[in-house]
Amino acid sequence: MQKESLALRIVKITLAIALIGSLFIAGWSIYRRLPADPSDASRHATNPSGQTELTIVLRNDLTTAAPSFPVELYPLDLPALQREFRATPHLARQFDDFLLRRLQGVTPVRASTDNQGRAAVMLNSGNWWLHAKASFAGGETVEWRLPVSVSGGQSTVELTRENAYERTKKF
Length: 171
Description:
By secondary structure, the chain is α+β, with helices and mostly antiparallel strands. The chain contains 4 helices and 8 strands. The chain has helices spanning 6-32, 60-63, 78-87, 95-103; strands at residues 51-58, 70-74, 109-112, 118-124, 126-135, 140-150, 154-159, 166-169. The strands form 2 sheets. The chain has a 5-stranded antiparallel sheet, with no helix packed on it. Strands 4-1-7 form a 3-stranded mixed sheet. Strand 5 (126-135) and strand 6 form a beta hairpin. The chain starts with 5 loop residues before the first helix and ends with a strand.
């Protein structure tokens, strides 16, 4: 039986320690990027119920022409749904069909803008999907579909022509 040299033994121990250390660092890196635990309301609580006030504001150039309109907020993570749709394209032909299927049974939080183009709702922390559709004078309709991340404090979402999902006009 041949004995290992001291140098070879030191190299093996060093490599083993480096392997274990790199696995620990990789696991810690992944752990740090995980989303916050939604059940931990103490970190995000702004009032006793643990909800956050989300203010929805219609940009000034739109408020003069728009009457009040309904806004719906769904407790969905839209980017995650889009990734899931791309990973399994056989479930639906278009993302809208996939989204409609996912919205079945999900109760939205509803609000309506006032005459100044503002609405306020209380939401739990997490990822939400905002859907709003406004009809303007002159036959123009603007629809918004925006992912919204709510976490502590007060949040504001501004609805503009630039972040609209679709703009149509009837002649």
